Amino acid sequence: MSVNFVLFLCFFYGYDRSYGEVLDPDNQPRQWQDLVTFVNQKIGSMEHLMNIKNERLDQLESKLRAQETEISSLKELMLQKDTILSNLVKQVTDLKKGEIMNTISDTSIEHLARASSSTSVNSTSDVTDTPDGARVDTDAHTAGDRMGEYNTRRQQDALSDVTIPKQYNRVAPPTPKQTVAFHAYRTSSITLGTQATVIFDHEDLDHGDGYSPADGLYTVPESGTYVITWTMFAYHHNAYQNVLVVNGATRGMSWTDSDEIGDYHQTTGITVLTLKQGDHLFIRMGQIYHGKIFSDSTYSRPTFSGWKLD
């Protein structure tokens, strides 16, 4: 409060000296208003300067925090590099120790061999007479035998450290057997009578070579369980029955009827049979009321299909 009052007096004094006026008692309200305006302008200028300084301080603090973060990252990177360097130094030290141990081992072996040789030459030898009069130095033979045993043992130790890979017989996987199946369809429309065989003249698939597009007969290539299916497409105002015949016997039937409407009707028959190799089957016409079979590449085609399950 005292600071504001002092500032107010200073501004008042400066205002009075700058304008060279003496407060007029008759005109004090206007002069006080001008004084307040002048003081407010000065205060506003000071606040603006303070805001600018605060913004600069905030920017400096942000830069300082960024530098501190960067310094922390550099410290972590230095620690990682120190760890890597320590590991490398340890590995180099281990390698040097291994080389020194190998050198000592080889030197010891050489010294042992030399000592054995000198012992066999310089020591007093026992002489044994052979039947043919030859003289044999038994000590020399003993030293040589010891060296031979040592070398043999060392070779065995070296071989024991070698792992011999197992040998496996590589056999190619068996080729999967192809499923017996067939699929045929009729390429054109036809009108047939009762008991006539429906010939599906286009063979699309025949694994097992069992279907004949010439006469519509399928000969079973392998014994087993089969799924047999057929689809018929009746022309409008036509109705007829189709029969699946196996070895002369009826084993399935279907009825396609578009007699009372001016539209096409399609019917699919399906059956599961146990068949033997050499069995014959085909589709023939049964009861008929106008037996025109319709076939068209745009709408549908009559089909005859089958496949072996096992």
TrEMBL record:
InterPro entries: C1q_dom, Cerebellin_Synaptic_Org, Tumour_necrosis_fac-like_dom
Residues spanning the signal sequence: 1-20
Bias (Basic and acidic residues): 132-145
Record flagged with keyword Signal: yes
Domain C1q: 175-310
Primary location group: secreted
UniProt feature coiled coil, ranges: 43-77
Location of this chain's protein in the cell: Secreted
Any one GO CC term of the record: extracellular region
Keywords assigned: Coiled coil, Secreted, Signal
Compositionally skewed regions (Low complexity) per UniProt: 116-130
Keyword Secreted part of the UniProt annotation: yes
Record protein name field: Caprin-2
Highest taxon listed in the record's lineage: Eukaryota
Renumbered residue ranges of the record's region Disordered: 115-145
PANTHER family: C1Q DOMAIN-CONTAINING PROTEIN, CEREBELLIN-RELATED
Pfam families: C1q
